[in-house]
Write a structure and sequence with these properties.
The protein has 185 residues and is mainly α. The protein contains five helices and five strands. The protein is elongated and about 80 Å long.
Length: 185
């Protein structure tokens, strides 16, 4: 019995050390990131927005981000937990595809970027792919009476390259893109 208690105590000490080292690595790594591990707050027209949390844009004159399984409620971050073979999930995605094609008739039979019709695991992803933003350019340009080239250039300028050129895909923060769009003349 005494041998088991001593072994359990040793294991506990070793695991505390391992977890402590892991936490220090994660904390130190977060301080290397551009936002130093803190929320990125953008103030626009006296209102604060968190660039790290997906926002809902309902107007046709704005780019739209990923759908949210939690209606963009940061207090209840979650995914739908429905797999790709779930019939209800497939119907929801198909309905989103049909709606997107109907609201963007100028795109014809162009492939719909997956992130425009599927929610992220958190339901709060603030970013879409460059393709997701470019898919919406024609409609935004038409609604705002701007040239497609001007809006396309804005998307290219707002596209964030992978961290250190290696980690992750290129992405566009929808909130920042829409703020820049409002400032476009």
């Amino acid at each position: 019995m005494k041998n088991h208690i001593v072994a359990a105590f040793r294991l506990t000490i070793v695991m505390l050390a391992v977890i402590g080292i892991y936490l220090l690595i994660v904390y130190g790594g977060s301080k290397v990131l551009p936002t130093k591990g803190n929320a990125e707050i953008i103030t626009q027209n006296g209102q604060k927005f968190y660039a790290n949390i997906g926002q809902e844009f309902k107007s046709e004159k704005y780019f739209h981000g990923r759908p949210s399984a939690v209606d963009y409620n940061a207090a209840g971050s979650a995914g739908s937990n429905k797999g790709p073979s779930n019939e209800e999930y497939l119907q929801t995605v198909q309905k989103r595809i049909d709606t997107l094609k109907m609201t963007h008739p100028g795109m014809g039979n162009a492939k719909v970027p997956v992130e425009l019709v599927t929610a992220s695991g958190s339901g709060l992803d603030p970013d879409i792919s460059e393709d997701g933003a470019l898919y919406q350019v024609k409609k935004i340009a038409e609604v705002r009476n701007l040239s497609e080239e001007k809006v396309r250039d804005l998307v290219k300028n707002q596209t964030e390259k992978p961290f250190l050129g290696l980690l992750g895909p290129s992405k566009v923060n929808v909130l920042k893109l829409n703020i820049a769009l409002d400032q476009l003349k």
